[in-house]
Amino acid sequence: MFREDQMKGVALLLALSLAWVALSPGGTGECRHGGASVSKAGTAGVIAAFRGDEDREGVYGLPEGSAVRDLLRAAEWQPPAEIEEAVLERTLRGGDRVTRRKGPDGMPFLSVDAMPAAEKLTFGLPVDLNEASYDDLTRIPGIGEKTAEAILHYRETVGPLKSLEDLKGITTLGEWKISEMGKYAFAGPERVDP
Known about the structure:
Blueprint: H1 4-23, E1 30-33, E2 36-40, E3 46-51, E4 58-62, H2 68-74, H3 85-88, E5 96-102, E6 108-114, H4 117-122, E7 127-128, H5 134-139, H6 145-157, H7 167-170, H8 175-181, E8 185-186
Parallel strand pairs: 2-4, 3-5, 7-8
Antiparallel strand pairs: 1-2, 3-4, 5-6
């Protein structure tokens, strides 16, 4: 019998495999599974998720500079007229999640926030150490429970990390480990890949 954390690992491995097939240069470009999809639109500069409509949910690769409207077009979802134009024109950042919701009055609206850390890591997107929860931090390779606690304590008492180099003063992580962590996480200004 598998433990809960082992089952999460198996699920993550399956998701990584699907993402690799769909987003690799020789991949099919789109993979559907149970109403969710991973889609590659040309050369992906931005990876963003659409949630809130079972038939259209998915993670989509879009050109750099794409807006929420472009994500909805890729998901083949027509926004109702009530959706604010400013939200539709908002430029997406890698790892954004756009969710269709209904307000207390029943009117639809879109919220934009960040994908959960596990989902970001699945698609090779870095996690912001200044926004990650304890659970998110422990999903990042190289960060265990003690390091996650140290990061949270630092954020609560000192403030946000300015860079990954700040980890040297609050953890026992060495130079090499911190450098390797840069593949999965960032602190301070958003990481920009070449």
